């Protein structure tokens, strides 16, 4: 895809880099020449310009881009002005970053429906992660159902999966087992490699380092995680 | 849990609020009285102090807390100093925010192993989301396997799940179907309610608004999503 990222701060810069790594054509824009130079070799193009300058902004291939994203952070005013200019010119898909609820309502009033909240979205994930001990990762399907990646509760180590009877006991479904192992690369550094092993054989013995991917209702998952 | 959050900016503030909503005892700390006042009613306690002041910091119930998190952002120096003070005093679990790779290596040198990167973590999720069209949500199990929430590919609407034969055709497993529907609350506002319906009956007819939760290897998922 052809993507224009305006604002190459911590969020915009990382996003531009990741999108470029995934094979997209990414143009990065920033008013700071240092930020532009830091991204020069990682993107298709890195351009230094002040995005609130409508003349300068319209020289970009805006109409030709699949996505234009405004990632300017602290400077709320600039973020809003740039968003308004882009809304006026008309782009295929516009996504803007919001700094706070008031800023967000201004963006919505401008007709922007895809809004990113980098700090708040990470805060939400970490709040969930910190509250579910032993849960390495989780994925909400809806308000009541999730899929979680969790270390097997200690009291079942040594039993077979059939004896543990997680479905009968907790009403949760084990989708697959993941094994994490340390592999040393030829540079001598250790990295964690994880192997997805598939749904457990009923006769398989539960090992202490089995990581389970489990699906179920949140209340049932909580009881299962707490053992 | 008892949690102390130092730095109530966009990230720290949201995190403190979310943790408090989940029933934890949260003490929020910030050097700005405005930030402290904004959080007063949402947390157990909100305290105004300069966290780089070791005397002031040690008056907090540090040893008694399960988690202490340094969420100071822009002020790299302050973040490092506060982290160093906490490492010295010794807390049960210390998590610090890193602003950039150099800052992160300093934190690691100080012995901090749990590090948050709010902007970079959100950038990663959005890069993935933008690249997988039609994928509403995804959950990495490891480098090669994921679980994705995706709208059913249009060409299968009207067929039965058995005829569609997703497992045979793409080597992906449909874990469950989710139905999203609009419900109007008595305030007249519409909200989206999603119903997790479980694994599909082979004779069930695929509807255009079926949302599938699918598990498989990333390359197979890509082919499936692209239809
Ligand atoms: N008018 C503008 N035109 C182009 N770029 C801009 C403009 N205003 C700000 N920027 C750039 O946007 C980037 C991100 O914005 P800023 O640094 O203000 O926010 P931030 O909250 O620190 O961002 P992040 O959290 O992503 O690091 C910066 O690199 C800045 O140079
Ligand atoms: N020495 C300190 N003691 C206590 N609080 C501090 C100190 N230094 C900074 N803070 C607070 O930390 C909070 C977050 O830091 P800051 O605003 O510098 O970073 P930020 O990148 O804008 O954060 P965010 O992205 O979370 O909004 C601010 O509310 C600030 O008042």
From TrEMBL, chains A, B:
<dbReference type="InterPro" id="IPR036291">
    <property type="entry name" value="NAD(P)-bd_dom_sf"/>
</dbReference>
<feature type="domain" description="RCK N-terminal">
    <location>
        <begin position="1"/>
        <end position="116"/>
    </location>
</feature>
<protein>
    <submittedName>
        <fullName>TrkA family potassium uptake protein</fullName>
    </submittedName>
</protein>
<dbReference type="InterPro" id="IPR036721">
    <property type="entry name" value="RCK_C_sf"/>
</dbReference>
<dbReference type="InterPro" id="IPR050721">
    <property type="entry name" value="Trk_Ktr_HKT_K-transport"/>
</dbReference>
<dbReference type="Pfam" id="PF02254">
    <property type="entry name" value="TrkA_N"/>
</dbReference>
<dbReference type="InterPro" id="IPR003148">
    <property type="entry name" value="RCK_N"/>
</dbReference>
């Amino acid at each position: 895809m052809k993507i224009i990222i305006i604002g190459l701060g911590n969020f915009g810069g990382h996003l531009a880099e990741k999108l470029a790594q995934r094979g997209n054509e990414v143009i990065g824009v920033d008013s700071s020449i240092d930020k532009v130079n830091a991204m020069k070799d990682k993107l298709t193009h890195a351009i230094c310009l002040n995005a609130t300058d409508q003349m300068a902004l319209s020289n970009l291939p805006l109409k030709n881009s699949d996505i234009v994203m405004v990632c300017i952070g602290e400077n709320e005013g600039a973020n809003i002005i740039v968003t308004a200019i882009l809304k006026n010119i008309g782009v295929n898909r516009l996504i803007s970053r919001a700094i706070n609820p008031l800023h967000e309502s201004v963006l919505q009033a401008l007709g922007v429906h895809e809004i990113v909240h980098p700090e708040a979205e990470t805060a939400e994930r970490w709040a969930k992660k910190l509250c579910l001990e032993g849960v390495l990762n989780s994925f909400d399907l809806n308000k009541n159902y999730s899929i979680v990646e969790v270390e097997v509760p200690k009291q079942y180590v040594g039993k077979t999966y059939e004896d543990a009877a997680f479905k009968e006991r907790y009403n949760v479904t084990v989708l697959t087992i993941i094994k994490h192992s340390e592999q040393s690369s030829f540079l001598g550094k250790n990295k964690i490699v994880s192997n997805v092993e598939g749904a457990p054989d009923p006769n398989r013995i539960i090992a202490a380092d089995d990581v389970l991917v489990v699906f179920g209702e949140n209340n049932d998952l909580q009881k299962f995680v707490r053992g």
